[in-house]
Write a structure and sequence with these properties.
By secondary structure, the protein is mostly beta strands. Helices cover about 0% and strands about 55% of the residues.
Length: about 210
């Protein structure tokens, strides 16, 4: 295959596992470096005061995830949420001249175990090489979030992406992969309004 993802692997994805022995009270940690990712997921939380907070899985290029994954506590616990944006990104590299390309896949939004939205991936106007680029995004406002009722909720995001490249010499190559799982915990307050707790990104990524 002529597609390369980060470490110039073959079409069959390679997971590189690095084991570190840590002498500490918590014992041994296993660090996984997942190479050659195709899809990444992220969330930006926008607040009523105009500020925002982003957790983007693609900001961790070596995919160094500890234990159950990456968990980030929202430092803006006292701020009211205006809306959130969940997005899927892709990163590709290849050798040769691309004549045509075909993107497919989806970004799914699941709240409290029920799928609420699914947006299909469509072909972009242009294709990026060698850097992360957004391919699809979902915006969820406070009215939509409040519709789940008073109390705490978990918004789960997951994505899948498949890309087929056709080269000028007539050859083709295909890559596909799942993003990490993203979980955002939020609360619908009794008097109205949304507050944020934390974001978790799992390290379980599969390539086919």
């Amino acid at each position: 295959g002529r597609l390369m993802r980060d470490l110039k692997r073959d079409k069959t994805a390679i997971a590189i596992i690095i084991v570190f022995m840590v002498v500490a009270a918590l014992g041994i940690y296993i660090y996984n470096v997942t190479a050659a990712r195709l899809a990444g997921i992220g969330i930006t939380i926008h607040y009523k005061d105009g500020s925002s907070y982003t957790v983007d899985s693609t900001a961790y290029p070596l995919r160094l995830m500890i234990g159950p994954g990456l968990k980030v506590k929202d430092p803006n616990l006292d701020k009211e949420v205006d809306y959130v944006e969940v997005y899927l990104k892709y990163k590709l590299d290849w050798e040769g001249e691309v004549k045509d390309y075909e993107f497919s896949g989806y970004l799914a939004i699941i709240v409290d175990g029920e799928e609420e939205k699914r947006v299909e991936v469509s072909n972009p106007d242009s294709i990026a090489k060698g850097f992360w680029k957004e391919i699809v995004k979902v915006k969820l406002d406070d009215d939509w979030l409040e519709g789940f009722g008073e109390g705490e909720h978990t918004l789960h995001g997951e994505g899948y992406l498949k890309v087929k490249l056709t080269f000028t010499d007539g050859s083709t190559d295909t890559a596909e992969g799942e993003s990490e799982d993203l979980d955002w915990k939020f609360k619908v307050e009794s008097g109205g309004g949304i507050t944020s707790f934390n974001v978790k990104v799992s390290k379980s990524v599969e390539f086919k």
